Amino acid sequence: MSSNIKIERICDNCGEAFTARTTKTKYCSKKCNSQHYKAKLRQEKIESSNKETVKTIMFPLDQLRAKEFLTVKEVATLLNCSIRTIYYYIDQGNIKAVNLGKRMTRVKRSELDKLFN
């Protein structure tokens, strides 16, 4: 089905004027169409990656606030410091912790709240 329509249009990608043969044509060439499509996909990937990053950052904090007993790594995440610093505070007696076994140190949530009061 051929068309005898000739419409002057401006390419959505490069901004050049061209003659379109259909009313739906947006790009002056296949090259411009491909460039716009790739740019759109790239932008969508960036946006999804940013959303995933925000979700990854926020998810553990929401989960940690609900827990009663925390690991040393979780305490370090909440206090925004290193794991070694938390062990130092435990050794100094600033944070009370219970060692349930080898590599199983737990801190009660109320102990962290007392630290800031």
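^ that was protein a. below is b, sequence first then the tokens
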Amino acid sequence: MANTRSLRGKVYDKTSQARYIDATVKLEPVKGVNGETTFVETDRNGEFTLDLSDEQKFPEGDYTLAVYHDDAVMEGDEPTIAVPMVVGKNFNNISMLSRDQFSQNAGIAFGSFLVILLLAVSGFYSYWHIQYPVPLDSQVAKLVEMLEEYDGLEGSDMRLGSELEVSVVPDSSTTSPDSITLTATVAPGNSFVMNTLDTMRIIALHTLEREKLDSSDFGKAYVFLIDEAQRAAQRGNEAELKLLLKEIREESSRKPNNFFWDIYPMRMLEILLWALLATLLRLIVNTGYYLFRKRFIKSGIYHSLGLIFTVPILALLLSIVLSFVKINIAFGEAELNLDLTNIYISILVATFIGLSPWKAWDYLNDLADSLFKRLSSAE
């Protein structure tokens, strides 16, 4: 049986795997343990042995293990050791980092770069969202414009169809509430004006429902204007129709715009930008932490730059995958349903992935492994 009253180990460089000779190993009792602090140096193989057989000097309890060397520092925080050790757990390897890998100047420069990049991305994000907020719907705007230019087409053979490519109904073949099918849904005998107004109403209802505005005062007033325009068209009152179309256009500009882009492909850019912002924020915090501890490693810059490019793409891929999955989270008797087709949930997921990308990467790895296993079993 292994001696649980001795502690052995080696001190080595994490990068080169070289052993550190004459490194000082210190074992110190934590507060509340009435034990002694002891020191030992590593031998020519970089190994050490602490004899803890004297139970009076080293009573049962927790101790911290620290290593000191002129050319290196411990990679992690001081580990806590339980005395006596569990059988088989009396060997501790301590990884060190060479001091020549650290650079405060490189850390300050990289941290400044990250802050500038974060401000630039935030500025770009805010500017383009203010310049191009989510409209009621670009298709509705197009239809209003076409009807305002309408002149003398009544009674012609022109029908809503291929030239407009906006005749839509919700697609029942998919679970996504934003999916539409480009299919004419109005009677073939209707005029161009009536066909266009019918399509406008379908798109408006779909958009208002998606943005939870269908029961608001704005939503009711907007649909009312379209209904009035349809009745004016049926009566053949062209002057009233033009006036109502003008009111529809003006009312569209008063819509409480969703600041977040919720229409593809801009929705994908929204996810990428939020994941990038979260990644930059995480890297800034990490850089500040290592600068404070004077342990910023120059070679870590390349790893961080890789994360800036890969994590947003990872977030986008995972958001697409999860949009096909319904997630239910139970909190006792309460239950939370996460719908990844909702732009707010997508942004939240992208932010979490940016802050903790490794869990997302593990999820995709597990998903890929499961898929390949099923494909192999199917063959």
